[in-house]
UniProtKB/TrEMBL annotation:
InterPro entries linked: DUF3492, PelF-like
Residue span(s) of domain DUF3492: 14-276
Name of this protein: D-inositol 3-phosphate glycosyltransferase
Pfam families per UniProt: DUF3492, Glyco_trans_1_4
Length: 502
């Protein structure tokens, strides 16, 4: 835990940010968004519960004095402290875990997921959950559950190795339950998935209202990731069942859900969220911080900015560039952004693809840039090739800089761009190349689109609008926490959420 020396202020509204793999230990769009909220609300007090990889990740953001505690929850570092349960406690935990697993694997028992999850949360608070899940009994319970007659997963003939693998993955996924949950104020999960677990525990134990913001659709990204994961189907069935039911529980229990685009809202409603408890809040940028970029480069150039990650689908972008270069031999592709730890193999694969296609001399990986505006200014056209996005900062930043864009039609991209850029299907290098060529060959149209893009940002997507909206949400939810009774709490939160979402 990192404790900021700033003193807490009596009477200040309190927000606990719940993050995974982002703020304050990593750069990227969601981290930028968190920093904007924190820096923009010096009148509020903030804590952060940050789910990380190993727990050794440094804090890479300068935290202001009104950010107090930063609690790091490593999913892949040393296990949480504790000892295995004994006697009746062990039997109660085993029974709860059996109900939990049954809910993941048997559609007829999905209603048991929530009660079982909160029983596991209480065990995690006592320090017994993680040791139990690392023991033989947890493996045996899973092996017995998914071999029950009538379960579809049984047809895949799950093995003991599958049971050991699944149990280990669930133990890691449930580690955030061991973090001390928020006790007051508002818990704000800035993504779905495991970051929400401390917030659900705080809601169940201390009636702290949960605010959920999804930038991308966490569940969709898990589905995409597990398509190529090196696990057999029984393992995938259990893990995807967990992420699906966790998403549904989060949607049902959140006081308010603030997706970053209307596309996410469809997933949330499909997952059981009350439409009256959903309010779309777009990301925003400061147009003064991202002014018009000025003259374009003399050499026809496509630029890209972001983290080097498979979800950004740079391979499609490299293939599209190859088609562009066949028409414009002097064209260049410049890629700006860091490579997360563990992502080196993906970057090497992209570099190898560029070499294989004969374009290694024209494709450059520039790494992190001190001023992201330079990345947008470097291109005549700014590209976005992702297979999953929320409401991407790189896109609206490039628009604010007055650059025309070619983007894939994912998440809230079409909502952001409107008619100020070209939108193409994901994973389609031919369509992407055609759009890039269209803009590279039409200078007057390209510059007119860039000017219209900047005006669109100024009119609709400013940082001030975003901060003011979330301040009002925080204060509204915090104002309703104290008077609620335990029995009427969830009903009253729904009433408050309805007034916010209207």
């Amino acid at each position: 835990m990192h404790v900021h020396p700033g003193a807490r202020r009596h009477g200040a509204a309190h927000v606990t940010l719940l993050t995974e793999g982002t703020y304050p230990h990593s750069h990227g769009g969601v981290s930028v968004w968190c920093d904007q909220l924190v820096q923009g609300m010096p009148d509020l007090d903030f804590d952060v519960v940050a789910v990380t990889g190993t727990g050794r990740e440094p804090v890479v953001w300068d935290l202001p004095a009104h950010v107090h505690d930063v609690l790091t929850v490593p999913m892949w570092g040393p296990p949480p402290d504790g000892r295995p349960p004994r006697g009746r406690s062990r039997n109660r935990l085993a029974a709860a875990y059996e109900r939990f697993l049954t809910a993941l694997l048997d559609p007829r028992t999905e209603d048991e997921f929530g009660p079982a999850l909160y029983a596991l949360a209480r065990a995690a608070a006592d320090g017994t959950l993680s040791p139990f899940l690392r023991g033989d009994r947890a493996v045996a319970i899973l092996a017995a559950v998914w071999n029950r007659p009538g379960l579809a997963v049984r047809e895949a003939r799950p093995t003991l190795h599958d049971a050991v693998t699944t149990t280990a993955l669930l133990e890691h996924a449930l580690r955030p339950l061991a973090a001390p949950p928020p006790r007051h104020g508002v818990a704000h999960a800035v993504s779905g998935g495991v970051a929400v677990l401390p917030g659900l525990a705080g809601l169940d134990r201390y009636e702290v209202p949960l605010l959920l913001t999804e930038h991308g659709v966490y569940l969709r990204e898990r589905y995409l990731g597990y398509r190529t994961a090196p696990y057999r189907w029984p393992v995938k069935a259990a893990l995807l069942g967990f992420f699906r039911l966790l998403a549904e529980e989060s949607y049902r229990r959140a006081a308010l859900i603030t997706p970053g685009n209307r596309y996410n809202r469809l997933w949330e409603e499909q997952g059981g969220a009350d439409p009256q408890a959903i309010r779309t809040v777009y990301n925003g940028v400061d147009p003064a911080a991202f002014p018009a970029a000025g003259p374009e480069p003399d050499v026809p150039t496509l630029s890209w900015a972001g983290r080097v990650d498979p979800i950004k689908d740079l391979e499609t972008l490299v293939r599209a560039f190859g088609l562009v270069r066949a028409e414009i031999p002097e064209a260049r592709l410049r890629l700006f952004g860091g490579t997360p730890r563990g992502g080196e193999a993906y970057r090497e694969r992209c570099e190898a693809l560029a070499a294989e296609l004969g374009h290694a001399d024209a494709v450059t990986f520039e790494g992190r840039v001190d001023d992201i505006k330079d990345a947008y200014a470097a291109g005549n056209v700014v590209m976005l090739s992702s297979i999953s996005e929320g409401f991407p900062f790189t896109l609206i930043e490039a628009m604010s800089c007055g650059r025309a864009t070619v983007s894939t039609d994912v998440g809230g991209v079409r909502e952001a761009v409107g008619d100020t850029g070209l939108v193409v299907p994901p994973r389609d290098p031919v369509r992407m190349a055609a759009a890039a060529l269209e803009l590279l060959r039409a200078g007057e149209r390209r510059r007119a689109m860039g000017e219209a893009a900047r005006l669109r940002v100024i009119e609709q997507f400013t940082l001030r609008q975003t901060i003011d909206t979330f301040r009002s949400i925080y204060l509204e939810l915090a104002a309703h926490t104290e008077p609620f009774t335990a029995t009427g709490k969830e009903r009253d939160l729904r009433v408050a959420a309805g007034s916010l979402a209207g």
